[in-house]
Design brief:
The complex is a heterodimer of chains A (250) and B (258).
Chain A: H1 2-27, H2 39-48, H3 50-84, H4 86-99, H5 104-115, H6 120-143, H7 147-155, H8 160-197, H9 203-212, H10 216-244
Helix pairs in contact in A: 2-10, 3-4, 3-6, 3-8, 3-9, 5-6, 5-8, 6-8, 7-8, 8-9, 8-10, 9-10
Chain B: H1 6-10, E1 15-24, E2 27-37, E3 42-46, H2 53-61, E4 68-73, H3 79-83, E5 86-89, H4 101-105, H5 107-111, H6 116-123, H7 145-157, E6 163-167, H8 175-192, E7 195-200, H9 203-209, E8 212-216, E9 223-228, H10 237-241, H11 243-257
Parallel strand pairs in B: 3-7, 3-8, 5-6, 6-7
Antiparallel strand pairs in B: 1-2, 1-4, 8-9
The chains are: A mainly alpha (250), B alpha/beta (258).
Chain lengths: 250, 258
């Protein structure tokens, strides 16, 4: 435990340094308080409004998790289809890559216009920004399977599906977790984008409302909460990986 | 040259390859390859690297199709006869790192549709002989090279297929461990008398373990010579000091170096 804290020390020191510089600059009074609030003000105002922040964090967290779960299922199924059929791969891959070039800032309002202020547009946008890394990491993982292992399974009389299940899929799991960590950092941002374009509650709409009433301190407080949310989800992937891949610790 | 026991000479071989041919594009790998193994016989195929030994095994296990020739099991050349005939042990041990040792050992049986508990019950009596008792719950990464190789062999024999195909099983081991494994395999084979076809490029290994040795040519591979090894069993380290063993080794080396 202490060694882990020691490893975090450089990161914590850097953050402390940045916050300190920010605090000193804000205190110098060169910019008005509502243009650049000091970190201490962000924290104290965030704490005072913790009830509002919390009630807006929950919908964002829910949209993130449901959207990400949906993305996992879709991303995995796509990777399987692509692995089993060269035609599916050739048909889908260009489309999937194009989907990653769409400017979310332009797409988000459209998706809200089409699907309303409910959960659906959030799920779609979270999935749109996260599924690709999942599909690609699974696909790369399948292809890393040892040809000797596949040959061995076939010599035992295994079907193609059996070879996939017993060799290709387990081989891909460490790759998948690498992809999972990339995509989960987009998930919260995706949900906030969707809410920013229109929602009844959530950190995105909270930021927008705060900005419109010149509460830059509360905007930043909400940004801090969303960062914490992402960091927590990111850390969770390591916990899940340790449980799911016990052999990597052997 | 052919000095198989008289009783076997008349019997139908367990495994017979007749006139096998295989090319990859313009690269001719096998040309008129013919060999056989009788039930309970230990036969080795000795050949230079890249001479098509592994391709031969691929054809037997269904990974590749021969361009010509025939493979028959007990005189039956149909695909059905071949389907369940072989248990194959690859060069690398290919223990799946995400399966505990016991689950690696039952892999072949599971693929055949044997239930987990039944598969484990069939593995259990072999654990002692294969030096794996007490290691069932280990991960493959926790085992030494020799143990991994024994696990790979157990995974092969427990499938109870009529013919074992061993593709340079000890090639990746250090010299000392390899010698230990050869002695151990000879002992275990004495007990079970499997029908074995062993691919190797180690002349001494071939002599120590085999009843008969085939020497293959450079690509395209065909049988250059066939040498019986009439050394008494059980074989020990003294067997290798036997002048007969020395003569056979020299004969094989000469055939290999052509």
């Amino acid at each position: 435990m202490t060694s882990r804290l020691l490893r975090l020390a450089p990161a914590l020191a850097l953050v402390a340094l940045i916050v300190l510089a920010w605090q000193l600059y804000a205190d110098s009074g060169r910019l008005a308080e509502d243009v650049l609030p000091s970190p201490s003000r962000v924290v104290s105002q965030g704490w005072e409004n913790r009830g509002d922040l919390w009630s807006n964090t929950l919908p964002t967290l829910r949209a993130t998790l449901i959207g990400f779960g949906f993305s996992l299922v879709v991303g995995f199924l796509l990777s399987v289809a692509i692995d089993f059929s060269a035609i599916v791969r050739r048909a889908f891959m260009p489309l999937l890559i194009v989907s990653q070039t769409l400017p979310i800032i332009a797409i988000a309002p459209l998706v809200v216009i089409w699907f309303g202020f409910g959960l659906a547009p959030k799920i779609l946008l979270v999935a749109l920004v996260t599924f690709f890394a999942i599909t690609v990491s699974f696909s790369e993982g399948y292809r890393a399977a040892e040809p000797e292992a596949e040959q061995l399974l076939r010599s035992m009389g295994a079907s193609r599906w059996r070879v996939f299940r017993s060799v290709r899929l387990p081989t891909s799991l460490p790759y998948f977790f690498a992809g999972l960590r990339i995509s989960i950092t987009y998930a919260v941002v995706g949900a906030i984008f969707a809410e920013y374009a229109g929602a009844e509650s959530g950190l995105g709409i909270y930021m927008q409302t705060a900005k419109n009433s010149f509460r830059t301190d509360l905007v930043l407080a909400a940004v801090g909460v969303s960062a914490l949310l992402t960091l927590t989800l990111f850390a969770l992937t390591y916990v899940v990986e340790r449980i799911a891949l016990p052999w990597t610790r052997a | 040259m052919t000095a198989a026991a008289p009783a076997q000479a008349t019997a139908t071989p367990k495994l017979e390859l007749r006139g096998l041919a295989k090319s990859f594009g313009t690269l001719e790998v096998l040309r008129d390859l013919s060999l056989h193994a009788h039930a309970g016989e230990f036969v080795s195929i000795l050949g230079p690297s890249g001479s098509g030994k592994s391709t031969t095994f691929s054809i037997l296990t269904g990974g590749e199709r021969a361009d010509g020739g025939e493979v028959s099991i007990d005189g039956d050349a149909s695909a059905a006869a071949r389907a369940g005939a072989f248990a194959y042990m690859p060069q690398k041990d290919v223990l799946l790192p995400w399966r505990r040792i016991v689950d690696n050992l039952t892999l072949g049986l599971e693929v055949q549709g044997v239930k987990r508990a039944a598969a484990r019950a069939r593995v259990a009596p072999l654990l002692e002989t294969f030096g794996l008792a007490g290691f069932e719950q280990h991960w493959p990464a926790q085992l030494s090279g020799g143990m991994r190789q024994r696990a790979a062999l157990l995974r092969t024999v427990v499938q109870e297929r009529p013919i074992l195909l061993l593709d340079e099983p000890f090639g990746a081991l250090d010299a000392l461990t390899r010698t230990q494994m050869q002695r151990w395999l000879e002992e275990v084979w004495e007990r079970y008398r499997w029908t074995v076809v062993l691919i190797t490029h180690d002349v001494r290994e071939a002599v120590f373990l085999s009843d008969r040795v085939y020497v293959l040519s450079q690509r395209p591979a065909t049988v250059v010579t066939e040498v019986a090894v009439p050394l008494p069993r059980p074989r020990t380290l003294e067997t290798l000091a036997d002048p007969v063993a020395g003569r056979i080794e020299a004969q094989l080396l000469e055939a290999l170096l052509g």
